[in-house]
Amino acid sequence: MSDLYDLFKPKEPPAPQAFDKEAWAEKKKAEKSRCYAMIDLSLERIGQAPELFESYLKVQSRFDLYSPRNALLIQAQRPLATKLADSNTWKEQGIMVKKFEYKNPVMILEPGNQYERPDGSIGQSYNVKKLYDISQTMARIPPQETGRIDDRLLISALITGAPVPVKPIDPQNGMDSATFDPEGKCILVQRGLSADAMFRGIARELAKVEILVKQRPVQDLDFTAGAAAYMVCQQSKIESDRGFMEELPKTFEGLEAREVGEELATMRDTASDLTSRMAMNIRRQTKQKAAPAKNPESR
Questions:
Q1: Would you state the pLDDT for residue 25?
Q2: CA-CA 20 to 30 A from 214: which of 8, 141, 255, 263?
């Protein structure tokens, strides 16, 4: 029989393993290469597959502060992600990543240090950052919010402070729900539209105006504005118009990966212009409604 008193002997801690700097560097290099490969493949395929392009637009609308390339990385790894954070951030919130999910991070690229190239120009390095969706954690996922902002407030927020005014007109043959009038420098909107149709039409035409005002490079103005409006509608909980995607293969035909990336950046930046202004207007108008009315007798 073994001596039971052996159980009381202090156990020596395992010898610490030496840190292999070269192995760590190789691992990081491989992860970065994998990210670049996923981006290149996505940029190559996204112009040929409408379902992939629409999936990207949905991801980019949910993660509007991320660059298009990082949105492509999210789409390639976890297209249904809704809330991402690294393990430390989740831990700070009292939420733990599931043990078996640690090997399944969503990898994105974040800026690292700048460096000088042999020709004297400055380059930007990138590091891999590992994120985890809320579905990969022990957090209880709240039910999806189905409500949206009041139609009047939503449309008011969209047009307030816009580069051009919006004017209603009687329906005309062949006219879309809304159209930008370059000569009159305004957006014309048909009377009799539903709130959703009005919002979609104005968002699309305002996207065109933003692109023209900012002189952003585009292959097809209608297509790029349609994609930007799609994201604005997604964020505003309004059913998006998919009609513009009929021009998808032709729009990206013959473009290099860099040029496709520039197109995606224009779409994202244009949508951001509209949603940022809307958010500011909604905050201001909501604050004004919530402010207590002044009592005339207190003057």
A1: 86
A2: 255
